[in-house]
Structure formats: structure tokens, C-alpha cells
Amino acid sequence: MKALVIGGTGPTGPFVINGLLSRGFTVTILNRGTHEVPDIPEVVERIVGDPHFEETLKSALDGRSFDIIIASYGRLRIIADVVGKHTDRLISLGGAPSYRGNRFPEALFPAGLQVPLPEDAQKVVTEEEFRFGYLVKLSEDAVMQGHADGQYNCTHLRYPLIYGPRQPVPCDWWLIKRILDKREFVVLPDGGLTLITRGYAENMAEAVLLAVDDAEVSFGKIYNCGDDHQLTMAQWVEVISKEMGENIEIVSVPSNYAHPSRNMMIGHHHSNHLLYDTHEIRSDLKYRDKVPVIEAFSRTVQWYLDNPPKFNDATKTDLVKQYEMEDELIKIHSELMSKFENLSFSDAEFIHPYAHPKNPGKGKDHFGR
Questions:
Q1: Claim: this prediction has a pTM higher than 0.85
Q2: Region 38-52: what's the mean pLDDT?
Q3: Which of 94, 224, 290, 291 gets the highest tally of CB atoms within 10 A of its CB?
Q4: Beta-bridge partner residues of 69
């Protein structure tokens, strides 16, 4: 059995590749050849080609055929048009930005996504509304149209925000870096109560491999993916700081002003939940977290400590500005909290609303009823 992985060097790639090898596949990877990853064995054939363009992808695949192609990189709309001549089975990997309200919650009424968001929820409807989300939707449509036309049997997986090794958008690093820099506080929007669906790289690779293992069930399906166990941003901070032996305090500010936390929220400017229903993959393919979430974060922290991202001058300057703004926000927060402390109030004691008589037929209840 021959498998082609388009991409293969990102967060989930080596886990997918090694999972295929353990299943007896002969594995080939196709990418631009700009990143060599030591976790990919030498036995894996490398094809250098650019999957972003029809002519370069066709040239790279000329004369080749595979039992399965896993497309994790490149332009899916182009891949969908090309690979039908080279395989009968396609697993494509995308994301959730196609959901309407993902980037702009005010596009929905009431504002914000349903929690959790059903897998068949409405998608972005125009390029003007949210261009990237609309292009993601078009990519999904393209691969599923290829399936409907009989070019191949397809399963499409919507990846969440991936964490773990080799992440090009290192959300976790921004917190780890703060702790390494001996920052005592981190600013989060609205108490850090936001839920953003995330998935550990090895767990998400397991989702892909489950689709490989059970093609008959997954044919023609689109699955949302994510860890079974999801954490709020505040819990995420708590887990990482404990793993590093520190206790960084969360300072809550309104989301409109939580600018220093944007890198930790993949640029989102709102604190609405982005929690996606993953029932289908858990029901159809029996997905369960291969690596428990607390252990996954522990491994993630260790990977970043061993492989700290390299900052260019612009990023270093931006981080200094983030810290300066964070200090200003913390000062404002402290001043407001001192005013709150001067308020005269006490929480009312909760009293159960139903009667709890002490003796049968005697007197009224605690509400005089």
C-alpha cells in the first residue's frame, strides 16, 4: 500500500507519517522541500513540488499513483482538481474559519457562535464578509464535489487550533516567554473564560489515522476535530505556569482592550467562544484523546524550552511594546480594583426556593408560605 502526504513537516505531519509506516504503508511526502524534520525517517521518499499551483503539482505527480493521498498543505481547490488521476482515496485537512461568525461574531444574532457549534452550522456566504473564511469554504466544497463526481472517495477533517511541536503560530510560546521573562501577570480578555477548540498535534494525527483505518465509514464525511478535553484560556495559563513551576496572575480586562493577548488568541479581537462540536468523529471513528490534555501541554512546554522560536528584530520590538501596554493595563486594573474594594456590599445567602418543612403539617415554610 502506497501513501502520499502532501506537506508532512508541520505539527501533525511526522505523527501521521509514522502512523502510516506502522500500518505497513510505503510513504512518500510532497512539499516545497524547505523544511527538513528529523522525526521523518529516511525511508520516506521526498518529492519536491509546489502544491499551490496546478502546473507544479501536476509535474510533481506525473506518472505516480497512490492508494491514499493525505492533503495537509497547499491549495486544496487545486489539489482536488489534480489528484483524482493519481488516487482513489483522498483525506483532506482544513480548518474551521469557514463557519460564519468565527472571525466576526456580530454577523450572527445573537452575536457569537452557538456553544458548542453544530457541525452543520452556517458557513461564510460571501468573500466580502470574511475572505479567508470564504476561501476555506470553497476548498471544502471543491474536495467534496470531487467526491460527488466520483473522482475519488474523500474524507475532510477540520483541524482546530493545533498546539505542540513545530507550530508556525506559536500561541503557547507567548505565555511561556512571559514566564521565562519573569513577568508576574498576564492580561486576558474577560477573565480568560474563552473556550477555543484546540487539538494536540499527536491527537489530531490520530484523528487522521482513524479516517485511514475506517475508510468505509468516513467516505464522503466532513469531521470537526479537537481534543476531547478543552480548557478555557485561564485554565490553559494555569496548566502551563504550573508545568513551569511558576504562578503567573491573570489580569482581566475587557476584550476590546486586551491587545497584549492577541498573539495567544491567533489574532482574534473578541472573547466569544469558538467551541466546535466533535460528536461525529467520536461517534463514527471512536476518536478519543491519545495523549491526555495535561500531559500534552507538559510535552508542549518542554518542546518550546528545547526549541525556542527565533525572533527577528520586529518581533522583539513588538514584544517590548506588548509588555509596556500590559503594564499600563495592569496599572489601570489595579486602580479600578481599589475602587471596587471600597464598595459596601455583601453577597446574599442563597436559600433554596422549595419548602423544607421540619415537621409534617406544622406552620409555614421559610418564605412564609
A1: yes
A2: 95
A3: 224
A4: 4, 90
C-alpha cell, 229: 478535553
- Residue ranges of domains in the chain: 88-336
C-alpha cell belonging to residue 140: 471544502
Q: Is 88-336 a domain of CATH 3.40.50.720?
A: yes
Give me 270's grid cell.
Answer: 473578541
Return mean pLDDT, the chain: 93
Which of 237, 252, 259 has the alpha carbon at shortest distance from 191? 252
Nearest alpha carbon to residue 43 among 22, 21, 63: 21
Bridge partners (DSSP) of residue 87 are 66
Determine how many CB atoms are found less than 10 A away from the CB of residue 242: 15
Does residue 83 contact residue 69 with C-beta atoms inside 8 Å? yes
C-alpha 5/C-alpha 31 separation (Å) is 9
Confidence check: pLDDT of 365 > 80: no
Helix H or strand E segment including 325? helix 313-341
pLDDT of residue 363: 66
| Contact between 65 and 87 (Cβ < 8 Å) | yes
Could you give the C-alpha distances from 68 to 87, 110, 136, 213, in angstroms and in order?
6, 42, 22, 11
